[in-house]
Amino acid sequence: MSRACELTGKAVLTGNNVSHANNKTRRRFLPNLCNVTLISDALGQRFRLKVSAHALRSVEHRGGLDAFLLKASEAELSQRARLLKRQIAKKVAETASAAA
Hints:
Helix content is 38%, strand content 28%. It is built from three helices and four strands; from the N terminus they run E-E-E-E-H-H-H. A two-stranded antiparallel ribbon has the order 1-2. A two-stranded antiparallel sheet has the order 3-4. The radius of gyration is 18 Å and the shape is elongated.
């Protein structure tokens, strides 16, 4: 699996180490990835995701995994997260139509 966040798409960046003598050598800036288990309220399941620390804060700020995925654009999500987003949207639509 690549070193990229499954929710925000944050991935490895490249740059230079620059010494005092101004020598430049290539280096990699790795994202702060955490393996976390997030709970979907709509589906009632737990999902293990590889998420950056910044994305984890965003998920909490938006009110959970369901709210984050419904608001996120599909372009930045991983394949698994896109599938999850579709399942959650379908379930939310079903519950909304049943309530009406």
